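Let us work through a complete example step by step.
Step 1: write down the sequence.
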Amino acid sequence: MDAARPAWPRATPGNGVAGLAQHLQLREGQIPPQLSTSIILGLVLSLAIGPICIRVAERLGMIDRPGARPYKIHAVATPRAGGIVIVIAGVAAASLSGVVWERPLAALFLASMVIFAFGVCDDARGMKAATKLVGQLLAVAILMQGGIGVQMLHSPIADAALTVFWVVGVTNAYNLVDSMDGEALGLAGLAAGFLMLTMTSTGQEQGALFSAAVLGACGGLLYYNVTPARLFLGDSGSQVLGFWLAGLGIIFTPARTVPQLSSWFVPILIMIVPILDTTMVTVSRLRLRLPIYQGNRDHTYHRLVALGFSPQRAVLATHLGSALAGCLAVVALGLHPIWANGVFFVAVALGLAAVFWLGRTQSS
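Step 2: predict the structure and record it as tokens.
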């Protein structure tokens, strides 16, 4: 590490609540200032370039028009400029910290440009689901070639298959959960924030800095994406965010500070809301014999609104659920592996129960 940089904190957790306190305790001045810098840069850049990117999207024909699909409820033609903002602000903020051009994040950035290119084409002209999948598989291949891949099953073929399943699944989960103004962006920002926290506490500098940049970019873009939205994320935005977060989830490997048995599930728990939402939607559409990729008003947000939630409170409910799950992930890092996995499986069981209840409520 560069000697000019402040020392990066490396925690060694113990067990139980005392272990959690030890795991997260950082002395005054020990938190690297680069984190704040990355967040601020991402925030300011996304706020500054938002209006410019809106005009660019309009010129490229990246417009979401009212009534274009039966499930669309917005009343005004809205540019799908979110992806342009996220990529420029997130990458620029991380580049100024120097982490984008270092391995393995260089591979994550390069592969995400494939996702972005396919997303822009889809936002401007439309694209078949099979063509999108080809782009996602190509991006995963670049990611794995760059050294980013799951290493849990001690079998190259099984690990490669799990990598494809995780990255493609999470990428599409954030695309599918983009049902209402600010929802996917808020969920992505929360995930980036909790990844930043967990990577900081386990000494993973590169991942923490890039997560901070993504958090800042999401925060600034949220200004334009909350109701009434001046821009939408579009496929280029939601898929890039999902792809980045999936990659960061793989990069999160605090083997030196936390046992793998206490950390393997942390990215899953941090992103559990979009994952469960996609699971619910997939099962629902298969049960109704509808194409999985076909948009519909059957997401968590729509079901909460059907229960009587206002649109804003429905979005807030998903964000609160994500924040709670992120807090549980942080808590689990400081626990003995048995208790840590217990927290994870109880959280997943409760989430599945909530999804099952929402599904039955919607159909009744």
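Step 3: interpret the result. The longest helix spans residues 33-60.
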